[in-house]
Write a structure and sequence with these properties.
The structure is a single chain. The strands form five sheets. A seven-stranded mixed sheet has the order 1-6-5-4-7-8-19, sandwiched between helices. It has a seven-stranded mixed sheet with strand order 11-14-15-10-9-16-17, with helices on both faces. It has a three-stranded antiparallel sheet with strand order 2-3-21. With 489 residues, the protein is α/β, with parallel strands linked by helices. Helix content is 41%, strand content 18%. The relative contact order is 0.13. It is built from 17 helices and 21 strands. The chain has three domains: 3-222 and 430-441, Aldehyde Dehydrogenase, Chain A, domain 1; 227-419, Aldehyde Dehydrogenase, Chain A, domain 2 (3-Layer(aba) Sandwich); 449-482, no CATH class. A hairpin with a 4-residue loop joins strand 12 (325-326) and strand 13 (331-332). The longest helix is centred in the N-terminal third of the chain and has 27 residues, at 67-93.
Length: 489
């Protein structure tokens, strides 16, 4: 079986048995071959091509995700990751030459990328197709066997992934485990060679604690409150469209790098709000709850969480646009709030929804202190035409990633690593970074039998110490000794 389904109890014993099977497959050596890796990547690409309608439908069932978003933000990115890996894989697998030093003369050196072994990938619900398969592609490219645990909060996509992967990839090396907390716990009890988890910080801490018991390395893709600093020196129309697209046009704010709050000046806030209102009505109409281009909230629990943020006494009076909600459809309209208190819930939790607070400052430069007073975010955005402010922002703000004069798009560049810093996570992947994330860089030094140098061996005489000192300071007088032609010392 390629899929461990929910039927029957998936406990620690079954998880251990699954891991044992995959270790046997890895020990056979087949996943290390270029041919196996290429074939699995081609199979994943074919799977996506042949099942696009089913994927779109699963995403609609889970999140009411518009077809356009399903294709652009999930399907196309998975296909791009596959194609990029197929194009670059041979180069990535090639050993890298490394420099040597006079200390090891004569010698040569190289770095070999080898697969880690059996890896566990626990994915998230908000982009359930992309965030499941993107790291799987990296793990395959690096030559590992893989267990994928999709999120139970997106059940339609989880079920589809289990069904499709069983039919398209090598079942002895790539498996899917469906389920919820019990199944995840059973998996985390095992000793993996690496774990990648995408989700919230609370579960991330559990994953890290479980991994620590086995000294297992982890990649944690968490989140945080990603700020958007908006200067007055901008193209306001373009900026508003890009902010709206990144906030509400990406899963209705249910995105880890979604703009979480805006900081702008008191004098510019009204113009910005008017521009955002105009774009929101242009994109989603005057009744956004009826728009087919706006995703719903994933479930009633998250709907209640967002409602609680919005209905807090110190926040409810700060709404300047939106605020409508429909619990039966699990829809909340795009909502803008102005000058919410710093101690409010909405300013101390990652929003992960369609609510966007705006904080005002006297000078735009004051925004840097506000951001730096908080935990380091997964993403930070700046809209400005000032090169001075841009330079200051890049130098002073620490974030997983940054984008100037746009939002979210940095995730689509395979040449850039995607990952957090501090409480927003650590480790990264995408493109070559995915291959590296699931590889061990093995250092190899080659030396011939000629050129044996006596200075390295006892007894350690004063002359040997002087010679060693000259060697370490790159004196040319030690060359004869290095090749075994010098006097005995």
């Amino acid at each position: 079986m390629a899929v461990e389904m929910r039927k029957g109890k998936f406990d620690g014993d079954r998880a251990a048995a699954l891991l044992k099977e995959l270790r046997v497959s890895f020990a056979s050596g087949k996943t290390k071959s270029y041919g196996w890796r290429v074939q699995q990547l081609k199979n994943v690409l074919r799977m996506v091509d042949e099942n696009e309608k089913a994927i779109v439908e699963a995403l609609r069932l889970d999140l009411a995700k518009p077809k356009f978003e399903a294709f652009v933000n999930e399907i196309s990115l998975v296909k791009a990751a596959c194609k990029h890996s197929l194009t670059k894989l041979k180069h990535w697998m090639k050993p890298q030459k490394a420099k040597t030093s006079i200390i090891t003369f004569p010698s040569s050196a190289k770095i070999v990328s080898e697969p880690l072994g059996v890896v566990l990938i626990i994915s998230a619900w908000n982009y359930p197709f992309l965030l499941s398969l993107d790291p799987v592609i990296g793990a395959i490219a690096a030559g590992n066997t893989v267990v994928l645990k999709p999120s139970e909060i997106s059940p339609a996509t989880s079920s589809l992934l289990a069904k499709l992967l069983k039919d398209y990839v090598d079942c002895s090396t790539i498996r899917v485990v469906e389920g919820a907390a019990a199944e995840t716990t059973a998996l985390l009890e095992q000793k993996w060679d690496k774990i990648l988890y995408t989700g919230n910080g609370n579960v991330g801490r559990i994953v890290m604690a479980s991994a620590a018991k086995h000294v297992t390395p982890v990649i944690l893709e968490l989140g945080g409150k990603s700020p958007v600093v908006v200067d007055s020196k901008i193209n306001l129309t373009v900026s508003a469209r890009r902010i709206v697209a990144g906030k509400w046009g990406c899963n209705n704010g249910q995105t880890c790098v979604s703009p979480d709050y805006i900081i702008t000046t008191k004098t510019f806030a009204t113009k910005l709000i008017d521009a955002l209102k105009h774009v929101l009505e242009e994109f989603f109409g005057k009744d956004p709850l009826q728009s087919k281009d706006l995703s719903r909230i994933v479930n009633s629990s998250h709907f209640s969480r967002l409602t609680k943020l919005l209905d807090e006494d110190k926040v409810s009076g700060k709404i300047v646009y939106g605020g409508q909600r429909d619990e039966t459809q699990l829809k909340i309209a795009p909502t803008i709030l102005l000058d919410v208190p710093e101690d409010s819930l909405i300013m101390n939790e990652e929003i992960f929804g369609p609510l966007l607070p705006i904080i005002t400052v006297d000078k735009v430069e004051d925004s840097l202190n506000i951001i730096n007073s908080r935990s380091k975010p997964l993403a930070a955005y700046l809209f400005t035409s000032s090169k001075k402010l841009e330079k200051e922002f890049v130098e002073k703000i620490s974030a997983g990633g940054m984008l100037i004069n746009d939002t979210v798009l940095h995730l689509t560049n395979p040449s850039l690593p995607f990952g957090g810093v501090g409480e927003s996570g650590f480790g990264s992947y995408h493109g070559k970074f995915s291959f590296d994330a699931f590889s061990h860089k093995k250092a190899i030094l080659y030396r011939p039998f000629i050129g044996d140098v006596t200075v390295r061996y006892p007894p350690y005489t004063p002359r040997k110490i002087r010679l060693l000192d000259a060697l370490l300071h790159h004196s040319t007088g030690v060359i004869p000794a290095l090749i075994g032609l010098g006097k005995k010392v």
